[in-house]
Amino acid sequence: MATGPGQLLAGRYRLRAVLGQGGMGIVWHAHDELLGRDVAVKEVLWPPELNASEQQVLFRRTVREARAAARLNHPAAVTVFDVVEEGGRPWIVMEFVRSRSLAQVVREDGPLPPSQAARIGLQVLGALAAAHAAGILHRDVKPGNVLLAEDDRVVLTDFGIAALLGDATLTASGAVIGSAAYIAPERAHGGPAEPASDLWSLGVTLYEAVEGRTPHERGGAIQTLLAVATEEPDPPQRAGPLAPVLEGLLRRDPASRLTADDAGRLLRAVAAGPGGGTQPAVPLPTSQPDLADGARTQALGPPGRPPGYPSTVLVAGNPGRKPPRRRYLAPLIALAGLLIAGLVAALLLMPGRTSGRHQPPAASPGSASSAASAGASAAASATPRGSAAVTSAGSAGPSASPSGAASTGGGTPQPTAANADPSP
């Protein structure tokens, strides 16, 4: 039976024009004459080598997977409305999204900036996470199946070859389903698909978004599939801050590949971009949180924590926060020491007291210097390294030079008690 524009499916869906075509089928723009709305209809094509029995297996699998996709409820996952049979083949009716595919955008406009690719990746990742939570694998994540709508919505479409996790009864043994350039290495080796395989395909999709090519492109499907199975991905040249995400998603070992949570955290940081705003506040976790790059941290350890309180809590630094009071203690001790030393020196240098009392001999310059040095030593022992000394007149005392000597007002370094190690 020939298919073409104007054909009516199930007495309801009128085909209008072809939107796209791939190895597994043709996607049509159609009109739902019952509800009066535009829809997208995927015509599933049988591979020519299948016999009648194998076609029936594929038919049952397509219906089951379409029903599985209809269970998804996520803004970035295409909505499946219906599955109908026409001409012995299934047709999947989906929402119609006015958009261009990511493949079209890269082909027509060129590679994307890393921040824009990260924003697209975040929405696709959300759809994949919802699918995996429902036990559904996509198995064909690629730029051609990522739609960029006019309202900035990103939609992951074509769940038509998705498979329910654990459903091996409707999968042909040894069959590799998907596009060669986007298949994960474990699947290229004939292994089963798993959630990490979809994350690999997301990594290839983002790689192509910023590089304009896939990481194992070798000019042909067989050569590309062989490179996927045996070689490391080509290093990206334009990825910038997105490079760590690509490296993590394109690890050959699925066990060491980035998880969806880790990939989401890195993509959010790249999507924000330089000066792209602050990250939302993170509630106090039981484990150490990851803070934004450049955020200063300070370990807080207040006494009397309630049971179960984290032993160390990291909080973002606040430049305007007042310093702890203990920082003022050392300068006060130093000031008190200088005042006491000055008073002792003044008493020793005073002339004779009132008549009738014994008048001590006049102090020699050497003894006065020794007394002043002793007072300064006492002050220095109470003053931490780097603290500014204040004289009794209120002016700043000598500042320490790099060599440890104090610099006087005349600019000539003078040896003082401050040169000695002030530690007790």
Low-confidence stretches: 167-174, 275-328, 353-424
**Overall average pLDDT:** 73
Oligomeric state of the chains in view: single chain
Helix content: 25-40%
Number of strands: 16
Give the helix tally: 10
Gyration radius, rounded: 38 Å
* β-sheet strand percentage: 15-25%
Order of helices and strands: EEEEHEEEHHEEEEHHHHHEEHHEEE
**Termini distance?**
99 Å
Main beta sheet: 6 strands, antiparallel
Report strand order across the widest sheet: 1-2-3-4-6-5
Principal-axes geometry comes out as: elongated
Structural class: alpha+beta
Structural overview:
The relative contact order is 0.07. The chain is an alpha+beta fold and 424 residues long. The protein is elongated, with a radius of gyration of 38 Å. The protein has helices at 52-70, 102-109, 114-133, 185-188, 195-211, 221-230, 243-249, 260-272, 329-349, 365-382, and strands spanning 8-9, 13-22, 25-32, 37-44, 80-86, 89-95, 99-101, 136-137, 146-149, 154-156, 163-164, 297-300, 313-316, 399-400, 406-407, 413-414. The longest helix is centred in the C-terminal third of the chain and has 21 residues, at 329-349. A hairpin with a 4-residue loop joins strand 9 (146-149) and strand 10 (154-156). The chain has a six-stranded antiparallel β-sheet, with helices on one face. It has a three-stranded antiparallel β-sheet with strand order 7-9-10. The chain has a three-stranded antiparallel β-sheet with strand order 14-15-16, with no helix packed on it. Mean pLDDT is 73; it is low at 167-174, 275-328 and 353-424. The protein starts with 7 loop residues before the first strand and ends in a 10-residue tail after the last strand.
